[in-house]
Amino acid sequence: MFRPRLLTSSSWSRGFVRTYASHPAKARLNIPTDYGSTPLLHHNAKAALANRELPEEARNGTTSRINLFQAVNAALSHALRTDQRTLLFGEDVAFGGVFRCSMNLATEFGDHRVFNTPLSEQGLVGFAAGAAMEGMRPIAEIQFADYVYPAFDQIVNEVAKARYRAGANEGMNCGGLVIRMPAGGVGHGGLYHTQSPESLFTHVPGLRVVVPRSPTQAKGLLLAAIACDDPVIFMEPKILYRAAIEHVPAEAFTLPLSTAEVLKEGKDVTVISYGTPLYLCQNALAAAEKELKCSVELIDLRTVYPWDREAVMASVNKTGRCIVVHESMVNAGVGAEVAATIQEKCFLRLEAPVQRVAGWSTHSGLAYEKFNIPDVVRIYDTIKNVLEY
Q1: Which of 47, 95, 166, 293 gives 20 to 30 Å between its CA and that of 73?
Q2: b (16+ CB within 10 A) / e for 244-262
Q3: Tens digit of pLDDT per residue, the chain (389 long)?
Q4: Which class does domain 45-249 fall in?
Q5: Which residue in 42, 78, 193, 326 is the catalytic one?
Q6: Among the options 91, 121, 297, 327, which is catalytic?
């Protein structure tokens, strides 16, 4: 049975490793992700500039090796510099924000365009909705995704419905509004700094919901979200802010919204995910391919609403097996919608039931957070099970 150790000063002096942030000494699969070698990141300029989704200017340019929060900062800086209608605001945004995503932007662009708001999520999103209706391009930051719930009424009943409610009255909408928020687990976030509430927004027509997996994706998808004429919920995996580092094109560029990306082609099973769990999926499929002699296709949804049904259907019709992986709770999650759609559209091609590997339907405990969300073992075992079905 797992027994948490009492933390003492002498424990630290002996090099004690916190239980909740460590892995078992003899672990084979559940070991930390090596972000310095994972194929999901571009480790040199050549790989970064070979991305066929990039515009020609970006492909012919240079790169810089940056992490995810720096990529977000670069996208915000470009948007503020190129469009005077762009505003950036939220709690503590002026000094850089909790994760430093808006660092130095208030100094460069002034406190009339980058500024702090009162500690009121409902108020700052309501202000953002009004600014968007007046033709501005507001970027509102929720300090943590866990804090978005007071603003839920504004998002669902105002932001998402504005264009539909306006009918033939052109110009009355919240297009151009982006609501950014750090989301997901970090290993010790507990009840109020761990949540992944994306599925709540995927039920709301009128919104786009985007989750990037890497610095390049964060920069390109955020610039696309800012340019989009639909309101966008942009959820940034907080554990990747500093962990994920890669070469990112220096030029401004956008990546397509509502378009999935096939990260690795395969023929035996399709694994679908987004955000942080993609790295766990990559580790699991690498082990499965080596030990089970199979071929796994890995897909990043990127936009979880509206999601790319055509790409997913094409993959599952080819492989006949599918696993959906996400951090948020399994009940009524993104995986439920994906699984239901696959069952409806690909039933005659399926060789096994669609599987979901997701967070358990419980609140996140502090020391036990890693047991709540998917890990490499759970994904590996699910790949094995669907292959043997």
Answers
A1: 47
A2: bbbbbbebbbbbebbebbe
A3: 444 434 443 444 444 454 444 567 788 899 999 999 999 999 999 999 999 999 999 999 999 999 999 999 999 999 999 999 999 999 999 999 999 999 999 999 999 999 999 999 999 999 999 999 999 999 999 999 999 999 999 999 999 999 999 888 777 889 899 999 999 998 888 899 999 999 999 999 999 999 999 999 999 999 999 999 999 999 999 999 999 999 999 999 999 999 999 999 999 999 999 999 999 999 999 999 999 999 999 999 999 999 999 999 999 999 999 999 999 999 999 999 999 999 999 999 999 999 999 999 999 888 788 889 999 999 999 999 999 99
A4: alpha beta
A5: 193
A6: 121
Per the annotation, the verdict on 56 as an active-site residue is: no
Mark 103-140 as b/e (b = at least 16 C-beta within 10 Å).
Answer: bebbeebeeebbebbeeebeebbbbbbebbbeebbbbb
For the chain, the domains span 45-249, 259-388
| 193 belongs to the catalytic site | yes
DSSP tag of 362: S
